[in-house]
Amino acid sequence: MPSQNSLIDALQKLIEAIFSALGYKTSRKRTWHQHVVPYKGGWAVRRQGNKRITSKHRKQSTAISKAKILAKRYKADVIIHREGGGIRKRHSYD
Asked: Where are the domains of the chain?
């Protein structure tokens, strides 16, 4: 069995090398940047790239606190939006 696993690992590395040489990405890097955005009369925290929200809050300050906790855990950024949607401030935790 060990020789079969090493053969599979070698084939996987070979396929990844071929895709890399052709310019294809073999894995999609997930981003953990947290956005604080206006949401239905309150504020929400949403991870970058997600359609769903992570949490809902009445005040922007509590949404920012939640986003900072998540960003510190995943070594990401917090992007705080204005009520109109524009970016107000960005904090980096990496």
From this structure: 34-92
